[in-house]
Every structure is written in C-alpha cells, then in structure tokens.
Amino acid sequence: MHYAQSSRPSRPAQGYVKGFGKPIMSLKKKIILSFLLSAFIIAFLSVFLYLNFIEIKNETLFLELTDTIRSKSLQLRRHEKNFFLYAPAEAHDEEKAIYAYLDELDGILGGMKNERGDRTAALKTLIQGYRQQFSAIETLLKAVTKESRDLKGSSPAYARVSRLVESNFLDKPTEDIAYLQREHALPSGHRFIVWLGYLDREIMALRKTGEGILVVSKELDKNAREKVDSFNHRSRNAILIFFPLFLVVGIGTFLFIISNIVRRLQLLTGVVERTGEGLFAPLPVSGRLWASHDEVDILIGKFNIMEEHLAQREQELLQSKKLAAIGTLAAGVAHELNNPLNNIHTTAQRLMKKTDDETTPLVKKGLDDIFGQTMRLKRIVGDLLQFARGREPHLRPVELRGLISGVFKHLSGSIDTSNVRFQMNLHPDEIVLYADQEQLEQVFINLFTNAVEAVQGEGELAVTAREEYDDVNIRLSDSGPGMSRETIDKAFEPFYSTKPRGTGLGLAIVFNIIQKHHGRIAIESGEGGGTTFHISLPKNAGVPARSGTDTP
C-alpha cells in the first residue's frame, strides 16, 4: 500500500523517543548499577537459599504429617478388617478404634493448609464419606439384627441357625441372603433381605472409600518427599549457577554500558554531519531498557524531533508558497475570464432561442457546443474562485451520520449511484464534532464523486468513523482500480487530474478544508486494490488537535 500525507504535524514514529523529561535511567545510575549488580546477585542467592531452607523445613514438617496420616490410614484399614471379621456382638472395640482414628485424621487434616493442593481436600472428603458410610453400616446392622430377632420368634428353624447367620452379617451378607431365600423361603422384598442387600452395598462402598483413603495418603506422602528432594536439588543448582555468575556480570555489564554509549554518540556525530549537509535522516533509538532511555537517548530523541520539524517546516513553507502563488494566479485568471464567459453564455442563449426550423443543423450544433463548453468553463472558473478564496471555517456542532447520509443522498440526484453499494458504520452511532458544515459537505461531495467515478458505476463505497481520544477518524473506501504511486504523490496538488475533463482542484480544495480544520488526510491505495482516504479531525477544530502520525 502507498500513502499520501497531509502537512499536519506528525507523531514521532515508533522506535523514537516520544517524551523527554527525566531519563528513565541516567548514566550515573547505570554505572553504579553495574557495580552493585554482582552484590545483588549474591544477596539474591542468600535470600533464595534462606527461603529455600524455610520451605525445606515446612515441607519436612508436612512430610511428618503425611507419614502420620499414612500410618493412621493403615491402622484404620486394619481395624476395619477386624470389624467385618468379628460377629456384631464382638465388634464393639473395633468400632471405637475406627472412630478414634477417624477423629485423629480429622484433627490432622483440619490443621493442614488448603494450599497443599487437591489431594488434601480429596482426603478430607474421603474421611468425611468414610465416617458417613460407617455410620450407615451401624444403622443397617441394627436393622438387620432386629429383623433377625423377629424372625427367631416366628421361626424355630431359623432360631436354631440364627447365631451362624448373624455372624456373617458383616463378613458375607450375600451368603445370608442366599441362605434365607433358599432354606426359609424369604421373598426378595422381605425387609430382612432388603436390609441385608443395603448392608452389603454399604460395606462394599466403605471398603472402596477406605482403599481411596490409603491411596491418597500414600500420594501425599510421596509428593511431600519429592518436594523435599526438589528443594534440596534447587539449592545445589542455585549455588552452582549464581556464584560464578556474579563474578562475570559486574565487569560484563560495565563494559556493555560503556560500549553502548560510545556507539550511540558516534552514530549521533555522523547524523549531525549529514544534517549540516542538508540530509535529514532520523537516528533510531534503542528499544532495550538497559541500554537506552538515558541522557544519550534524550539527546538523540530531541535531535530527531529537531530534524523532523526542520524538514516539515521546509516542506510546509514550499507548499504554502506554491498554494499562495497558485491561488493568486487562479483568482486573477478567474476574474478576467468571468465577464467574457458571461457574455458568451448570454449571447449563446439568445441565439439558441432565435433558432427555428429553417436554421441549418450545422448552426444548431455549433450553438449547442458553444453553450456546453461555456457551462464547462463557468464550472472551472467557479472551482478556481472557490480554491482561491478559501474562507476560514465557521465552527458549529455537526452530527456526522446525518451529514454523510445527506451528502450521498444529494449526490444520487446528480450522478447515477444506483449500482453503488453504500455502507456506513459509526462508533458510537452519534458522533458530534465542531466544524464548518458547508465545508465538510464539500469534502464528502468531492470524495464521493471521485469514488463513484472510480468504481465506474458499479461497486462498493464504505464509510467508517470512530471516536479516538479527542479525534474523529474517518475511513472512506471504494472498490475501484486504485491509484499509482505517481498519482498518490500528486493527488493533492492543484490542477493535477487523471480525468480527461477534470480541473484537478477537487482534492486540492479537500486538502485545504481539512488543513483549516487542523486535521489531516492521507491516501492508502495500490493499483488494482481500491482506494481508501483516511481523515482525522479534532472534535473541537478551534483548538489544534494533538500531534500524531499521518499514516492511518
């Protein structure tokens, strides 16, 4: 893409210093810092080792807790096994032991911090679930014991084997179910059978939860041991890395700072010599924080701004002189041509009114040509006068959406836009800026006319506008054939036109209006890729907008 730029002051390009107050890091600070860096590395190493020691101590304490948890989890499983092996009447001591270990595990886990990870939270959940499941087994055991007692009263045959059946309640409840259904013909819906089924499922769930507790406790213990080993390994590596590092960093950073300063000063000396010869070439500022943003960069940045302003002032002075001379010439020529053209126009009108059927076709055609060419010359003279006068804008609030849509609607009455797909997108929907409404309408009339002619009657025309800070940025794009590099460079020059019957004043008038509004305009285009005009206007044109780049 190519860009043609307005003469509004531009923002410094990226890579150059934008502000020049106090340096981010002065040369004195850099030199001192180079000597202190080695000491800082040693201090950092000392702090790191101290913190690492604290972590090792904490992890060792945690390791002791995890070892205790693992040990008590094993004891819990042992008492769980004994509880299921003994007959219900003999399992009371194991039941007390299970609750005691659950209480101890709850106490240990309650004192552990939550940041220990998901395993700690999972273990707490498992312990809580285990307690609930064990309580449910106790409740179910009471229920099946009651059903057994009731059955003994009603069945002498069962009473003879009841002790054997009851001894299997916690160990093999499924065998009890099969026996009761086979020998005593208890239906599957009998409460004794149902309670035994529930008891079997709860026992299986409890054993699974107990296995989970054991697995998680082992993982906690393993993780704690790995962390202690990791901290020890990290301490050894830190000593091996940082101790040699501090020996070379001090000298290395000092030499680096000195060489960087000397190199930039040498570059600046060369650019100063070229500037003296009339060659304006900005010097890039380093983007590395360690090596830049000091007094040398401030000097380079201010020198770049000075060069930019010198080149810009020279260009603006030449452009102003050229426009002033062209404007004076245009005003004089238009004034001298206006009266003869009016006389020719009036005479042609009179002669055309006096023609009749006897007038030869050659005479009629000649009068039509005279009248048509006179009208064309009057339009050219009108453009010349408008370009030469160039009045100052009369500022008032202008609503942009209504202005743009009104201009396009008005344009549709003078040229064919039926096959032009017009799109408008504003953010926010209502944008109000202080400007001269008549002059802005003239800007969009000229740009829309060029765009419609560029797409040759069929294509797309899109306008987007956005509020950004104190500016309104407008993009006007068409799907035409685009512009060449030469056309872009000369687009805003008066009397330059690529159209056979163009005056070459349309974009020059647009340029002057945008400039008087303290705005900027740029062209982005490439042959075969359409054309986009970028316009930036301050919301309050009475105050010059902040400086910024001319490229979109």
Folded structure, characterized:
The protein has twelve helices and eight strands. It is α+β, with helices and mostly antiparallel strands and 552 residues long. The chain has two domains: 46-239, no CATH class; 333-538, 2-Layer Sandwich (Heat Shock Protein 90), CATH 3.30.565. The strands form two sheets. The chain has a six-stranded mixed β-sheet with strand order 1-7-8-6-5-3. Strands 2-4 form a two-stranded antiparallel ribbon. A hairpin with a 5-residue loop joins strand 7 (520-525) and strand 8 (531-538). The protein is elongated, with a radius of gyration of 47 Å. The N and C termini lie close together (12 Å). Mean pLDDT is 75; it is low at 6-20 and 544-552.
Overall CATH architecture of the largest domain: 2-Layer Sandwich
Give the % helix.
Answer: 55-70%
H and E order: EHHHHHHHHEHEEHEEHHEE
Terminal Cα separation, in Å?
A: 12 Å
Task: Determine the number of helices (DSSP H or I, runs of at least 4 residues).
Answer: 12
Strand content: 5-15%
Give the CA-based shape.
elongated
Structural class: alpha+beta
pLDDT < 50 stretches: 6-20, 544-552
Oligomeric composition of the shown chains: single chain
- Strands ordered across the widest β-sheet: 1-7-8-6-5-3
Q: Which CATH first-tier class of the largest domain would you pick? A: Alpha Beta
Radius of gyration based on Cα positions = 47 Å
Question: What is the fold named in CATH at topology level of the largest domain?
Answer: Heat Shock Protein 90
Say which CATH homologous superfamily of the largest domain is assigned. Answer: Histidine kinase-like ATPase, C-terminal domain
| Main sheet makeup | 6 strands, mixed
Task: State the domain count.
Answer: 2
Number of strands: 8
